[in-house]
Design goal:
It contains 10 helices and no strands. The protein is mostly helical.
């Protein structure tokens, strides 16, 4: 019990003292996850709008596939990205394996289906409400998609935050393609696993506290955005 108490005390001192290793790991985690969410949003929002607006054969099948891909196993994604980026893989010439770029790519693959599927549902509901008005004004599909993305921006921000929460907590894929290399590809989740196995509970706890704070902050932001969206809809 005394060892655990000491570990909690050391963890608090690391956070309060802005330990250099701790800050480096947190900064890399945020950079990788934010970049992955940004790329996922750039892909997922237009894809969600397209499947929400256009009526074409196989549309329902695509929606089902997007929903199914929300549950992609991270280790499988990590394995596929590893094979693609390895020396013998089709993208091996880029030398991206065991780099933050490889980790961003893996997280993007994991988060994009989440953002695409959730944004499709948001914009499909909105399009159903305004479809007759769009048709009466003969608005082209591209402008309809743009209008839906803009009008549902608060809901889409919530979707993005959900994607960020998924990305920041990811461990399976990033450890396969990143390798958990100190001062290069070590992020919070992989560092927690490593430091726990080494018995360095102080650093693991400090990172765990920061991860919990980030999770709470994301949920608080989602709640705040939903409340703001409701107030604007009633205004």
């Amino acid at each position: 019990m005394q060892d655990f108490s000491a570990a909690f005390g050391l963890a608090a001192s690391l956070i309060i003292g802005f330990d250099a290793d701790l800050i480096e790991i947190i900064a890399l985690s945020l950079r990788v996850s934010l970049c992955a969410v940004l790329l996922s949003a750039l892909i997922g929002f237009p894809l969600g709008a397209l499947t929400a607006v256009l009526a074409f054969p196989g549309r329902q099948a695509i929606a089902v596939i997007m929903n199914a891909l929300m549950g992609l196993p991270p280790v499988v994604v990590g394995l596929l990205v590893y094979m693609a980026l390895s020396r013998a893989g089709p993208l091996g010439w880029m030398n991206l394996l065991y780099s933050p770029t490889a980790m961003i790519l893996a997280q993007t693959i994991l988060v994009t289906p989440i953002i695409a599927a959730l944004s499709r549902q948001v914009m499909e509901d909105m399009h159903r409400e305004y479809d007759e008005q769009f048709r009466s004004l003969c608005i082209p599909t591209r402008r309809v998609m743009t209008a839906l993305i803009w009008d549902s921006r608060y809901s889409l921000l919530t979707v993005s935050l959900a994607g960020f929460g998924r990305a920041i907590a990811e461990v399976g894929a990033v450890i396969i393609v990143g390798g958990n290399i100190d001062h290069l590809t070590r992020v919070m989740t992989t560092a927690i696993a490593l430091e726990t196995s080494k018995g360095n509970l102080a650093l693991a706890l400090a990172l765990g506290f920061v991860l919990l704070i980030l999770a709470l902050s994301v949920n608080a932001a989602v709640y705040s955005l939903r409340a703001s969206a409701k107030r604007l809809s009633y205004a």
